[in-house]
Design a protein that fits this description.
Blueprint lengths: L1 H32 L9 E2 L3 H5 L11 H19 L3 H22 L5 E2 L3 H17 L3 H21 L9 H17 L9
Antiparallel strand pairs: 1-2
Length: 193
């Protein structure tokens, strides 16, 4: 019975992430067809309307190359995270997007516009990296080691201020937000009195 539940959960996670990535491509097609009119709806640092863009920014990209570079890691890390349950996954995503977006709004260079799913992706990476350890889950620790082996160097380098055309702020604060969410949402352990 648990095998059936696990398979159902994997199917739901897979469909969710395939649909999410397909939606991002559809949005980018609309952006392209409108002469990149949607690009202006990213997070504008320290401007009031930039706050309203926080939940929108992860769905917007600056071209197909930008979206292509985000699609595979979002698909994989999102799928692995969603295996714990869709509600938990969505709560994790909302927390990462809000914390990362607010940090980007506060510390990005003036007049910059930040958009893209990479802050969320870095957040999911940080979440998966920490979750297994705080939950004391052997499978979660294995997942953390595997994703650290596959993407660790790339993600850590992406969180450093090496390229002025890339929002290292979104990467760094996404990573920190994801790790924080993992630490703050660990299951409570019952203690006998």
């Amino acid at each position: 019975m648990s095998d059936v539940r696990g398979l159902d959960r994997a199917k739901a996670a897979g469909l969710l992430m395939l649909g999410w990535v397909a939606l991002l491509w559809l949005i980018e097609l609309v952006d392209y067809a409108t002469g990149h009119a949607l690009d202006a709806y990213g997070i504008t640092a320290r401007e009031a309307d930039g706050l309203a863009a926080i939940p929108l920014a992860p769905f917007l990209h600056f071209g197909f190359d930008h979206l292509a570079s985000n699609s595979v890691p979002l698909l994989v890390l999102g799928f692995v995270t969603a295996l714990s349950g869709i509600r938990r996954f969505l709560a994790v995503c909302v927390a990462i997007v809000l914390a990362d977006g607010l940090a980007v709004w506060l510390i990005s260079p003036s007049h910059s516009i930040t958009a893209g799913a990479s802050g969320l992706i870095f957040g999911l990476f940080g979440y998966l990296l920490i979750r297994g350890f705080v939950e004391r889950s052997p499978l979660g620790v294995v997942v953390a080691v595997v994703i650290a082996t596959v993407w660790g160097t790339t993600f850590l380098a992406g969180a450093l201020p090496a390229d002025s055309t890339v929002s290292w702020q979104a990467h760094l604060f996404g990573l920190l937000a994801g790790a924080g969410v993992a630490a703050l949402t660990r299951p409570r352990v019952a203690v006998a009195a």
